[in-house]
Amino acid sequence: MPEPTENLQESTANGWEPKIVAFFCNWCTYLAADLAGTSRMKYAPNARVIRVMCSGRVDPQFVMEALARGADGVLVGGCHFGDCHYQAGNHKALRRFRLLQRVLMGLGIEEERIRLEWISAAEADKLRDVMNEMVAQIKALGPLDLEVPAEGFPELADVEEVTA
Amino acid sequence: MSEKPKVAFYWCSSCGGCEEAVVDLAEGILDVVAAADIVFWPVAMDFKKADVEAMEDGSILAAFVNGAIRTTEQEEMAHLLRRKAKVLVAFGSCAHQGGIPGLANLWDRQAIFESSYLTGPSTVNPEGTLPATALPHNGDVVTLPGFYDTVRALDQVTSVDYYIPGCAPTPNIIAGAVQTLLSGDLPPAGTVLAPDKALCEDCPRIDTKPQDLSIERFYRPYEILADESTCLLAQGLLCMGSGTRSGCSHLCINGNMPCSGCFGPTSKVRDHGGKYLSAIASLMSAMDEEAIQKALDTIPDPIGTFYRYGLAGSLLRRRKMTPVA
């Protein structure tokens, strides 16, 4: 598979484009993305899609690592309730996701950056709409920028030492 | 001069419990003294920073540093001891993962100063005096270390060879680690000197842990009278044993309290809280949105629960800093 490339044509004024990591389940959402492609639908190209066997496979550590390494948002896509190939994987995904959301919001990460969507293999149009909406929302928020800024203090050696 | 290897102890942002833990070795400390010279230990012995500076680089066999890095002084001492010691050991949860002080990463310097020095209910500070790094006083300059916005684990400041986990490390863990270091047969750098398996595996209550847990809601320890022989997680207490490294001799479990995770994760886990919340979520019985939210409401402080000792060392490290204009 070729490396994902930056979308240079449609970059915003300052040249910044949101990076989204998308975890799509093998049985539904990934197929929706496939259908969107074969149907030649156009949508925001900001997501790097990672195929997983089930949305229940998405470890919260994956989401955190994506954010820690520079993603501006994470999208998880799975099957609708009742459609899970493994019966309850998407229910587990929802529980994990809701708990993870509470942690991430406590860490100051905006709600819109983390999204869970049920998108069936037939719902290419929903995939397109979700993707476009999410990119627009994150563009409005700006970069996540979790970098812990370096903190400067005056060199203590420069300050005259006080001896008791 | 004796030919005994030299060891040093230092404390950074910590409560003093790790120093207690060393003292708790009781007569075991005599074995350490018999085998090694303690050349620096501010809490117990009268050596100064200048004494350490005067030592040759690498002349200390092992420096045991406890506490997180919160100030410029602590950072400076971490670098100094790194230079002087062949082996730098992060001692205790704070040096290992940031520990309890790491929870201050949910705020920043300004918020902490405001609450500690200005708005705290027991604070009287009409002039609004705040700590400053340098202050003129009677023709001299009085200095204080700088206070960082972000608390860091020791290995986020300098390279660390080994970790001794625990809040505080238990005597058997310390004794085992010291023995390992003095034996000369060193494990690979980066090793956590404690068993690499989950606490559940050798838990005395493991036989009462159901194969398939199905938890309706969670309880905080004060909300129920926990049975003293049944798996605490099965009783709805957020026991972190399934995601936490073993080696503590089950002190909390034996006291009928759930594991709060002070030994950090095993080597297979990158983010202790993230992995544990994943496990917890999969053990819940709630299936639909409403039931899930209701069950999750019984965890009022997820960060303080899942990251009690590990926020600074976690993947995301802190609450997002709001840019200062």
What does this structure look like?
The complex is a heterodimer of chains A (164) and B (325). By secondary structure, chain A is α/β, with parallel strands linked by helices. Chain A has a single domain, classed as Rossmann fold (3-Layer(aba) Sandwich), CATH 3.40.50. Chain A has helices at 29-38, 60-68, 89-106, 124-141; strands at 20-25, 47-52, 73-78, 114-118. Chain A has a four-stranded parallel β-sheet with strand order 2-1-3-4, sandwiched between helices. In chain A, helix 1 (29-38) crosses helix 4 (124-141). The longest helix of chain A has 18 residues, at 89-106. Chain A is globular. The relative contact order of chain A is 0.19. Chain B has 325 residues and is of the alpha/beta class. Chain A binds chain B through residues 56, 59-61, 63-65, 67-68, 81, 88, 91-92, 94-96, 98-100, 102-104, 106-109, 144-146, 148-149, 151, 153-154, 156, 159-162, and chain B through 72, 76, 106, 133-134, 140-143, 145-146, 148-150, 269-271, 273-275, 277-278, 280-282, 284, 286-289, 292-293, 296, 299, 302-303, 306-307, 314-323.
Low-confidence stretches of chain A: 1-10, 156-164
Number of domains of chain A: 1
**Percent of residues in β-strands of chain A:** 5-15%
Question: What is the molecular shape of chain A?
Answer: globular
Question: What pattern of helices and strands is seen along the backbone of chain B?
Answer: EHHEHEEHEHHEEEEHEHHHH
Q: Which stretches of chain B are low in confidence, meaning pLDDT under 50 for 5 or more residues running?
A: none
The overall average pLDDT of chain A, rounded, is 88
CATH topology of the largest domain in chain B: Rossmann fold
Major sheet characteristics of chain B: 6 strands, parallel
